[in-house]
User: What shape does this take?
Amino acid sequence: MSSQQNVRPRAIFLDIDGTYADHGVVPAAHVDAVQEVRRRGHLVFVCTGRPLSMVPGHILDAGFDGVITGAGARVELNGAVLKDTRFNQDLAARIVDTLDANDVAYILEAPEALYGRTGVDQRLRRVLTPVFAGRPRHDGVLSTDVDPVEDILGPVQYSDDLRSVSYAKISCFDSPVPLTGLIEGLGQGVGLIPSSLSALGDSAGEIFMAGTHKAVGIQVVEKHLGLKREDIVAIGDSANDIEMLEYAGIGIAVEDGHPRVLAVADRVTLGPAGNGVALAFAQLGLLD
Assistant: This one.
């Protein structure tokens, strides 16, 4: 497409980590691209596995038309919360008991805050610091002073008893036993996907409410705004992006993303170091 007149309005849903940002660092080219496509009449939404409490202001500084967080558990448009789902209280307490009994290091994720057991921050710093050591730097980035470990732990509130916490998702960072076995014992209401921090391997993962994923959040926006599915564009890289890319009219995977994400994608783009979001927008003709 060579002219703006030939490009119909699109609704674009962007994953954060590994797509729009690299460990909390947003390339300036991505900010410029988001602002330009919105100026041209397209809609752009954040669609992340992070809870709202873990989405810092600098991530949203480009300006977005809405925010889907918790991998589809929460949807907010223009300050209005359209969806906010969480584990039921009994199951939530049972999950906490199971994780504690097996000495799993985890964080409970809710829109208003993150929650961890007292002292887990020390264990998580030992686990996470090597993962982020020597992370690449980018030219033309915003918030280059972001510490990726503190990006995760900064919003966490600590308590000796988390059984009464209301939450939508759990990030497990260090489990001495296979998480798949623990999840199987919790019943059909619980699912597990690999952690977006692939370097942590099988000792990490994200526990979510079965049936809740990013495409569910997109469908809430689609219905509320009267969007057409064929006009939806989604860009992502991790296991929690699979349903989103499958559902979108155009699904775009980051080139070094999860194999199943690449398998369902219609197109492939570069990661944040290569300004992949801006490149994808340009290839779709949204910046012409």
